[in-house]
Amino acid sequence: MKKHTLKIKSDPHQILEVEKFIEDICDYYNLNDSYFGNIMVAVTEAVENAMIHGNHNDKEKYVTIQFDFSQKGIDFTIEDEGQGFDFDSIPDATDAEGNPEKKGTGIYLIRTLADEVRFLENGSKVRLVFNITSINKEVFINRKKHIEDYFKVKKNIFEKNN
Length: 162
Prior knowledge:
Elements: E1 4-9, H1 15-29, H2 33-54, E2 62-69, E3 73-79, H3 105-113, E4 116-120, E5 125-131, H4 137-153, H5 155-158
């Protein structure tokens, strides 16, 4: 199955491109507002973490966002060019006494809003899965064909090479 990719520089202004990428996907699948909100917040938080913590705000480094769809729903994989991090040592963002600076709030949001979160390649890549219950097999097959046809015509919307 082909993945659709958006590659952006680690520049906060590029978040608008990510938001447009997510909006186009959610519009195409006609996802309701609760899915849209969860996806938007979780994915943009993961991209911001990649820019800030992974790439250390280096505007010469890239963040790559891949979108894929399956019968369960939709997946986003966000990858930075950093060394990764120890995701098991992230402090509990809800522990006001033990973590007064509220470190790890972004990871907490991502884990709360996505149905599945996997940290890969030492944390320099994160995969977010959103289970979309409204996508049954027949609808999935039809939408898959339509979106593949769409990308053949409008390839530049989702594949950017800066």
